Amino acid sequence: MVVSAAALLLALRWPGWAALLAVLRQAGYFVLVPAAAIYLISMAARVLAWRVILGGRASLLRMLAALNQGYLIDNLLPWRMGERGRATLLGAAALAGEGETLTGALRLIRSWTGAAAEGSEAK
């Protein structure tokens, strides 16, 4: 807590705030709209992929929540623990076993990495 307080104090005393705010006022935010659209489309595609893996046994909203919770766990814990967390969350929501969802996750990851590897070999 002491380290966090010291970091906050240093951030608040930073002399570059005025320059940063000036630059942010001049920035063109029009590129955020297509970027947000692309992000939402990619999230929808991932949720639909999970729906196929689980055979439609969990709602789309539950799958979206589990997907984002998995990303949160990935950011907080090492070794891609978010995959395990996502499998646990979706396994409970879909009344499927954790092993089944984890196997589906691994299948999905392999298909994506396989497609990426094939694409890089073609170049």
Tell the overall outline.
flat
Count of the separate structural domains: 1
Round the Cα radius of gyration to an integer and report it: 20 Å
Number of beta strands: 0
The secondary-structure class comes to mainly alpha
Weakly predicted, low-confidence segments: none
H/E topology pattern: HHHHHH
Secondary-structure map with pairings?
Elements lengths: L1 H11 L4 H10 L5 H22 L6 H17 L4 H13 L4 H25 L1
Helix pairs in contact: 3-4, 4-5, 5-6
Describe the overall structure.
The protein is mainly alpha-helical and 123 residues long. The chain has one domain (30-122). It has helices spanning 2-12, 17-26, 32-53, 60-76, 81-93, 98-122. α3 (32-53) packs across α4 (60-76). It is flat, with a radius of gyration of 20 Å. The termini are far apart.
